[in-house]
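Table S2 (continued). Query chain:
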Amino acid sequence: MVVNDGASTDASEADDVGRLIADIERLRGGLRISVRRTADGLGVHIPPSRKILAVLFLSFWLCGWAVGEYFVLREIIRSGFSGPNFFLIAWIVPWTVGGVTVLWTILWQLFGVERLFFTANALVREWGLLSFRGKRIVEGSDIREVSVVKGASNDLAGIGTIKVTTAGRAMRIGSGLSDYEAELVAKLVRDAAHPATAIVGDGDANGRPA
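Corresponding output:
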């Protein structure tokens, strides 16, 4: 009978992570992500995806959006908030939200950066877009499940291709990653989290198993 103690398990997990990082380094030319081991843990850098065709199409659409926004706002300002303009007022609100969302998507494609850190049994996600910054820290023991969201590789706005279910509010990480890249990052999260964490490869858009 063979008994595996905690030290053997930790060494095995360390070897698995080491091999995974080696694979990522070997495939660096074909992957968008990069992984760096530091004294504190691991860091994953996810640069802008820069899907140029999508950016060009959305930029063209945004030009038409700006024209519509200008003329409708001019009509509302000129005629006032009278009865006949209620339709325009109701229309301009979702139209404006849609334009701002598209503008955010374009900027994220060009300048959006995401960084993941695995330090002291915690997952840290940082993102940056020009002067906008965000950060969230999740304890490894609070991570319940890591699932690659099926079909999320078309993510353009930084929503994330990996769902991390926690003891509190779930979060999405891995902006615009391919399915293969998402699987690699998900395994890193799994290995850095609590040993009971599960990894799911075929979730639906809400992270549920297909």
